[in-house]
């Protein structure tokens, strides 16, 4: 029998490509109020501290140049994480310059990612035959 910490939850892009493995469910992650994205802590590979949470983005391509997004309180620099199969943006990282502790740096912050709502489906939902057309309609793309 596995403990909750050792259970790995997997999530796929709506095109069925595996993009996330995590010991936390999407539902258990905090939500960013500005855009309802899930806040996904990523492991700090240089740290020796242990944590019960682990997550890994897989089969995604991170933009090398940021996209500037207008927000209610100003602008954000986002580096989008896109599915390597269909290129749907499934999440993003913020630029280091937007955080007090890394304000003088630039580039994507690597200790947290934000997962966009509607772009991921759990492996369990895929196995159960969840209606993918409804998921695709949520994010506003046309099925091929």
From TrEMBL:
InterPro entries: STEEP-like, STEEP1_dom
Residues covered by the STEEP1 domain: 3-127
PANTHER family listed in its UniProt record: STING ER EXIT PROTEIN (PTHR46355:SF1), UPF0428 PROTEIN CXORF56 (PTHR46355)
Protein family (similarity comment): Belongs to the STEEP1 family.
UniProt-recorded name of the protein: STEEP1 domain-containing protein
Organism of this sequence: Aureobasidium pullulans (Black yeast)
């Amino acid at each position: 029998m596995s403990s909750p910490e050792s259970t790995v939850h997997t999530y796929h892009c709506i095109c069925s490509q595996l993009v996330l493995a995590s010991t936390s469910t999407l539902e258990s992650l905090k939500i960013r109020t500005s855009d309802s994205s899930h806040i996904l802590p990523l492991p700090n590979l240089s740290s020796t501290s242990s944590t019960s949470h682990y997550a890994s983005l897989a089969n995604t391509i991170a933009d090398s140049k940021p996209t500037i997004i207008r927000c209610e309180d100003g602008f954000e620099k986002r580096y989008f994480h896109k599915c390597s199969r269909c290129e749907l943006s499934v999440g993003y990282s913020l630029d280091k310059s937007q955080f007090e502790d890394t304000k003088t740096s630039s580039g994507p912050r690597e200790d947290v990612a934000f997962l966009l709502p509607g772009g991921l489906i759990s492996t369990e939902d895929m196995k159960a035959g969840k209606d993918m057309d409804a998921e695709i309609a949520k994010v506003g793309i046309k099925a091929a």
